[in-house]
Amino acid sequence: MSDAGDPGRLKLLYQLGCAFAERVELDELIPLVVEKCRQALGAQGVSVMMLDRDRNELYFPYVSQDDREVAERLSAMRFPADRGLAGEALTSGKAVKVDDAQNDPRLYREVDRHTGVQTRSLMAVPLVSSRGSVGVIEAINPDSGEPFSAEDLNFFETLAGGIA
Question: Which of 114, 116, 159 is nearest to 138 (CA)?
């Protein structure tokens, strides 16, 4: 994996900063960020999960997956906000990086069952705004087959700050 100082990643951060400054509509901006982030990380998927405070659930309004059917299944899914690695990132307010998700007891396996994807490596970063945690951005399974690196997590956390 390339590090956060990689010229391609720096260019992406610059382009996204320009888009934020132009105040592009959120419904246009977030899908762009998610897709570009998936490409920059070389990940199988990147999702933004938002918190439905009334139901205390996380849902997937923005998904970039290399498989369209998986993206559609995720978009239709909701799960308890205190479950899984995303739930941990949301409630703790801290990023979570797991190299071997299948052997981590915190993994919420219903997402894998529902999508048919086996989560191997995962990063989940809380989206924290002035109103507190509003959701989580998550990346799974680098195309390289290796776990995400510390540099990947630093890059992902930088993006999460801008998204929130």
Answer: 159
- In the sheet that holds 43-52, the strands lie side by side as 78-80, 57-65, 43-52, 132-142, 122-129, 96-98
Strand, helix or coil for residue 67: coil
Instruction: Write down the pTM of the prediction.
Output: 0.84
Residue in the block written with tokens 């981590």: 104
Q: How does pLDDT run across 50-95, given as a tens digit for each residue?
A: 999 999 999 999 999 989 999 999 999 999 999 999 999 999 999 9
94-127 as b/e: b if 16+ CB within 10 A: ebbbbeebeeeeebbeebeeebebebbbbbbbbb
Q: From residue 116, give the alpha-carbon distance in Å to each of 64, 68, 73, 159.
A: 16, 12, 9, 27
